[in-house]
Write a structure and sequence with these properties.
InterPro entries (chain B): BPD_transp_1_N, MetI-like, MetI-like_sf
Strand content of chain B: under 5%
Radius of gyration of chain B: 24 Å
Number of helices of chain A: 14
Distance between the termini of chain A: 89 Å
Oligomer: heterodimer
CATH architecture of the largest domain in chain B: Orthogonal Bundle
Radius of gyration of chain A: 27 Å
Shape of chain A: globular
Strand content of chain A: 15-25%
Largest interface: A-B, 72 and 72 residues
Organism (chain B): Streptomyces himalayensis subsp. himalayensis
CATH topology of the largest domain in chain B: MetI-like fold
Keywords (chain B): Cell membrane, Membrane, Transmembrane, Transmembrane helix, Transport
Mean pLDDT of chain A: 89
Structural class of chain A: alpha+beta
CATH architecture of one domain in chain A: Roll
Helix content of chain B: over 70%
CATH superfamily of the largest domain in chain B: MetI-like
CATH class of the largest domain in chain B: Mainly Alpha
Membrane topology (chain B): Multi-pass membrane protein
CATH superfamily of one domain in chain A: Dipeptide-binding Protein, Domain 3
CATH class of one domain in chain A: Alpha Beta
Number of strands of chain A: 19
GO biological process, one term (chain B): transmembrane transport
Shape of chain B: globular
Number of helices of chain B: 12
Chain lengths: 519, 314
């Protein structure tokens, strides 16, 4: 019998495979080129963000870290400096009428879109009109706007249905961008935006969802606020990977875990601690007690506030990167009042007494939504509330349903971790009857008066006092159960400085300084 | 043979239609949630409904599915709800990243496993114990741990390879190799473990068979018996393990992509599911089905080519 030999080519194939593998391993070992964010000079800023930016369509822009990209491409009418103060942006000045219902903005002259077209009142009007008529995240922000007019080539008049204390802040964020009227309604804008901002998006070097490369415009009016010629923004969703990229020199700025601060410092990085960038609070929303009767009683809401050993929670849950709070307003904003932080001090036995007085000596049960960002905190909150007799059941909610689940009024109380904002915006979100954190649309005559006064007040110092009163109302009546502010830690390569201190809540390249530039 | 391939492909297409239809039906329960996520937490219910209408999600479910299908067969997979990026080109780019690491890992797995498995089966003794030890380690140590250790040593301390990121092959082949090396090594570990023990076992079984004794008596060199005959016989079961390994690696790639910040398919799928980006989720289920069908078909064909007993007759 003759044995049939297998196909002779099989040998050749095996050899080829081994060969390819060898080449693969050999060439990879030789290639040690650094991925290159220059670290010594201020020429390139390479930072990483956690999530993929949304569409760059002016009607779909979102705040958060992704703002680094669009805020560099688009001008906003106003800007926030690193102390959180409103400053002239594309609008060099602005003025409210005495009834606070007409806002007149004077635009800077000589500004140009990267396409070469001039930035004028018509472009501002077109963008504002588009944002307020297109379904998207910013339509509701401009809900108070009745009409936008462009009476002169560089003057814009915004008429309001009612005074809106948060409008100026809104015009320094996504609702205040200026799109190029020629391109902003075309589909290409989503990935290839045309703006008049300090940078243009380098489409050749940008890989959507992975890395966004920005090139500085030499003809930009505020060029000195942007010391970096190139900005590379990488999407790295994993915190360890983001830290690795920093250590390996692939990025030169980023947020790090508090536990890593020491190792970054000893590796020669500059670090900066920002004490408050977000607030963790229970929204005690059902203040009428329509879904959960006990919450209708202010004594119960106060008792809940007294259940938390906030200092210990900051130490253990946040490893010290944060600070305790009994109020939800930004601690760097005008509405914050340190004296309020002693209103409902930790005292479980007093809390139990209050519950008993309210008729709930045996406590009660509550179901709260378990969301992606609440998970790490749930056991501690469960325990703290159990200690005063409130039994919490956490109901899992898929991430894509978190917005609608909370808005559904199904949950009488829930835990939030919200990025801090400017005080007028926080007052709107947390205390106005239509505020999205005021899910059950609670109202109170005293509060309504305060909100109305704040919206009409044109003097910032007087407005600050009113916001303090609003804050006091919220804390005294225990509308919320704020527990702690969450801080963040930045690490930057030598030569780059993070200039933010939490006062401005926006993510902008203006928060990064080069060594040769005064902060 | 051709008929067989066509039949398998047709069955694959039917499967793809069924899977995407079920996916769409399951997604339909969260259309409102998706619209709310897009307009954000500050939106009024009217705004949510406007957004839903703008996306066409208010139409009858079956009409929406047919609409998607009719575009999909023409190669139009729509735009992402959140980034407005065309889904087809995004998936193509991301599939390139994932297949780069998975196919390279598969190739290296095969080479290492065959060498280790054959050596262990034929030499026995210390070589066998070493091969089994390597295999055991691959089983025991999780991919993630290996990935973290390799990044620390090779990327951060020694700086031989980048710690994160990806360069496409077309852009710079040397950098492509350097960006995928650590991910490939981390990904292949468990594959090497299972394939090595599979090949070792199958080879030992094969070498005890009568035909091997016959070959030896005819004076055929051992090298030829092992490589041309026994290995061929042992390849069938190994191929089955390999096809399962491929599908497992696609899953493992998700974690590896996360650790190395690679803009791959797994990351893309993961984020889209979190956000409820319907056009992307639909396309991912479509590609997922087609990939699995394709790989299984290739494995069956290769198996038939290697092993006459498994050959398809039609």
């Amino acid at each position: 019998m003759r044995i049939r030999h297998p196909h002779p080519r099989s040998h050749a194939r095996a050899l080829a495979a081994v060969g390819i593998a060898a080449v693969l391993l050999a060439s990879s070992a030789c290639d040690s080129e650094s991925t290159g964010a220059s670290s010594s000079s201020g020429e390139t800023l390479a930072l990483s963000i956690f999530g993929t930016p949304n569409s760059f369509d002016p009607t779909q822009l979102l705040e958060g870290q992704q703002m680094y990209v669009w805020d560099s491409v688009y001008d906003t009418l106003l800007i926030q400096d690193n102390k959180g103060r409103l400053q002239p942006g594309a609008a060099k000045s602005w003025q409210y009428s005495s009834d606070a219902r007409t806002l007149t903005l004077k635009l800077r002259t000589g500004m140009k879109f990267s396409s070469g077209a001039p930035v004028d009142a018509a472009a501002v009007k077109a963008t504002l009109e588009l944002i307020r008529t297109t379904p998207g995240p910013n339509q509701g922000v401009l809900a108070s706007v009745a009409s936008v007019e462009a009476p002169a080539s560089h003057a814009v008049v915004i008429k309001l249905k009612q005074p809106d204390g948060s409008l100026l802040t809104s015009l320094s964020t996504a609702a205040g961008v200026i799109g190029d009227p020629k391109t902003m309604t075309s589909k290409s804008t989503a990935l290839n935006p045309v703006g008049s901002g300090p940078y243009t998006l380098d489409k050749g070097a940008t890989v959507n969802g992975s890395v966004y490369v920005l090139k500085r415009r030499d003809d930009y009016w505020n060029k000195k606020a942007y010391p970096f010629r190139t900005v590379k923004i990488r999407v790295i969703s994993d915190q360890t990977a983001s830290a690795n990229a920093l250590k390996a020199g692939e990025t030169n700025a980023g947020t790090i875990d508090v536990a890593q601060v020491g190792s970054f410092k000893s590796a020669g990085f500059e670090t900066k601690h920002v004490q408050a960038t977000a607030v963790a609070a229970l929204v005690l929303g059902d203040r009428e007690g329509s879904v959960l009767e006990p919450l209708g009683d202010v004594r119960v809401r106060k008792a809940i506030n007294m259940a938390f050993d906030r200092t210990k929670m900051v130490k253990q849950l946040l490893r010290g990167s944060g600070r305790p709070t009994e109020q939800i307003f930004n601690p760097k904003g005008p509405g914050h009042d340190p004296a309020l932080d002693q209103t409902h001090s930790y005292d479980p036995s007093a809390a139990k007494k209050l519950l008993a007085e309210a008729g709930y000596a045996n406590g009660f049960s509550v179901t709260m939504p378990s969301l992606v960002f609440t998970k790490p905190f749930e056991p501690t909150f469960t325990q703290a509330l159990a200690d005063i007799g409130i039994k919490v059941k956490w109901q899992p909610v898929p991430p894509q349903q978190s917005v609608s689940a909370i808005a559904s009024k199904k949950y009488p109380m829930f835990l939030i971790v919200d990025g801090l904002n400017t005080t007028p915006v926080e007052a709107r979100n947390f205390y106005s009857p239509t505020g999205y954190r005021n899910v059950f649309n609670s109202t109170d005559p005293e509060l309504s008066k305060l909100l109305d006064r704040a919206n009409r007040e044109l003097d910032p110092a007087k407005a600050a006092d009113i916001y303090k009163e609003i804050n006091e109302f919220g804390v005294e009546n225990a509308w919320y159960g704020p527990v702690f502010y969450i801080g963040s830690d930045w690490a930057t390569k030598k030569g780059i400085t993070y200039l933010g201190d939490g006062s401005s809540t926006l993510a902008t390249i203006r928060q990064f300084g080069a060594a040769d530039q005064a902060p | 043979m051709i008929l067989y391939v066509l039949r398998r492909l047709a069955a694959g297409l039917v499967l793809a239609v069924l899977v995407t239809m079920i996916t769409f039906a399951l997604l339909s329960t969260s259309f409102d949630d998706v619209a709310s996520s897009i307009v954000g937490s500050g939106a009024t219910p009217d705004l949510v409904q406007d957004q839903k209408a703008q996306l066409g999600l208010h139409r009858p479910l079956f009409a929406q599915y047919l609409d998607w299908l009719s575009h999909a067969v023409r190669g139009d997979l729509g735009l992402s709800y959140f980034t407005s990026e065309p889904v087809r080109s995004a998936i193509a780019a991301r599939l390139g990243v994932t297949l780069s690491i998975v196919l390279a890992a598969l190739l290296v797995t095969v080479v290492i496993s065959v060498v280790l498995g054959v050596l262990a089966a034929t030499r026995g003794g210390a070589v066998d114990r070493i091969a089994q030890g390597v295999s055991m380690l691959g089983y025991l140590v999780p991919n993630l741990l290996i990935a973290i250790a390799l990044v620390y040593v090779l990327a951060i301390e020694l700086r031989w390879f980048p710690a994160t990121g990806y360069t496409p092959l077309s852009e710079n082949p040397a950098r492509w190799v350097s960006t995928i090396t650590i991910p490939v090594v981390a990904l292949m570990m468990s594959g090497v473990a299972s394939l090595t023990s599979q090949i070792r076992g199958a080879m030992i079984g094969e070498l005890r068979k009568d035909y091997v004794r016959t070959l030896r008596t005819r004076g055929i060199p051992t090298r030829s018996i092992v490589l041309r005959h026994a290995l061929r016989g042992a390849a069938g079961p190994a191929l089955t393990v390999l096809s399962l390994e491929f599908i497992q690696m696609l899953g493992g790639a998700l974690i590896i992509e996360q650790v190395f910040a690679l803009p791959g398919f797994g990351q893309y799928a993961f984020n889209a599911s979190l956000q409820g980006d319907i056009p992307i989720i639909m396309s991912i289920s479509l590609f997922g089905v087609l990939l699995v069908v394709g790989v299984n078909l290739v494995v069956d064909l290769v198996n038939g080519w290697l092993n006459p007993k498994a050959r398809i007759l039609s």
